[in-house]
């Protein structure tokens, strides 16, 4: 796991017990993309921050996204310049939420129309069969639309700190490298 990774948490950021934070603490080449506002996400702002981080990281970077971070990657890939897209070696997209849910937070702006085209880099979508933020299993459709490999996990919720995954070494093995 020597590639540089950009960590893309979702809404509210990932706390210290989240596997993303644990990977960041364990591996010096993991860098968290720091969004300006974790609690009132605006798609255009999150996409611009991701684009700047990818350009700074340079060639061969791997995107590791959770929840709203997955939708950020999809929006970025649909709108990014060819130059920055070429820097990405692959993406691990864990627990993409269903933004069409009636209870999708109103303070999250611009993410409801999820891009449907294939991602221009290798990608893996990981979903849980009982994710409360994806009750209709839209992650399966996202994986198909994005041209991603799909991994289904049974009964681990939103694949976050509440899931009890610890350092989640199994997730590292799923990186599309």
Sum up the overall morphology in one term: globular
CATH superfamily: Alpha/Beta hydrolase fold, catalytic domain
Number of helices: 6
Q: Order of helices and strands, N to C?
A: EHEHEHHEEHEH
Largest sheet strand order: 2-1-3-4-5-6
- Low-confidence residue ranges: none
Rounded mean pLDDT is: 94
Report the sheet-strand fraction: 15-25%
Tell how many strands the DSSP assignment holds: 6
Assigned CATH class: Alpha Beta
CATH architecture: 3-Layer(aba) Sandwich
Roughly how many Å apart are the termini? 9 Å
What oligomeric assembly is this protein in? single chain
Major sheet: 6 strands, parallel
Radius of gyration: 14 Å
What do we call the CATH topology?
Rossmann fold
Entry summary:
The protein is built from six helices and six strands; from the N terminus they run E-H-E-H-E-H-H-E-E-H-E-H. By secondary structure, the chain is of the alpha/beta class.
Topology summary:
Blueprint: E1 5-8, H1 19-26, E2 30-32, H2 43-57, E3 61-66, H3 68-79, H4 82-85, E4 88-94, E5 122-128, H5 138-146, E6 149-153, H6 169-172
Parallel strand pairs: 1-2, 1-3, 3-4, 4-5, 5-6
Helix pairs in contact: 2-3
Describe this structure in words.
By secondary structure, the chain is of the alpha/beta class. The chain has a single domain (5-172), classed as Rossmann fold (3-Layer(aba) Sandwich). Helix content is 29%, strand content 18%. The chain contains 6 helices and 6 strands. It has helices at 19-26, 43-57, 68-79, 82-85, 138-146, 169-172; strands spanning 5-8, 30-32, 61-66, 88-94, 122-128, 149-153. It has a 6-stranded parallel β-sheet with strand order 2-1-3-4-5-6, sandwiched between helices. Strand 1 (5-8), helix 1 and strand 2 (30-32) form a beta-alpha-beta unit. Helix 2 packs across helix 3 (68-79). The longest helix is centred in the N-terminal third of the chain and has 15 residues, at 43-57. The chain is globular. The N and C termini lie close together (9 Å). 42% of the residues are buried. The mean pLDDT is 94.
């Amino acid at each position: 796991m020597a590639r540089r990774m950009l960590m893309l948490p979702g809404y509210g950021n990932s706390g210290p017990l989240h596997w993303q934070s644990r990977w960041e603490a364990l591996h010096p080449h993991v860098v968290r993309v720091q969004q300006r506002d974790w609690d009132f996400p605006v798609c255009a702002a999150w996409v611009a921050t991701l684009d700047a981080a990818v350009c700074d990281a340079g060639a061969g970077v791997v995107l590791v996204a959770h929840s709203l971070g997955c939708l950020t990657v999809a929006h970025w890939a649909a709108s990014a310049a060819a130059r920055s897209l070429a820097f990405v070696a692959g993406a691990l997209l864990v627990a993409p939420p269903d933004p069409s849910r009636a209870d999708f937070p109103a303070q999250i702006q611009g993410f409801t129309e999820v891009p449907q085209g294939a991602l221009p880099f290798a990608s893996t979508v990981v979903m849980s069969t009982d994710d409360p933020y994806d009750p209709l299993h839209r992650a399966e459709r996202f994986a198909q639309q994005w041209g991603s490999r799909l991994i289904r996990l049974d009964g681990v919720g939103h694949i976050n700190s509440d899931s009890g995954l610890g350092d989640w070494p199994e997730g590292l093995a799923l990186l599309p490298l």
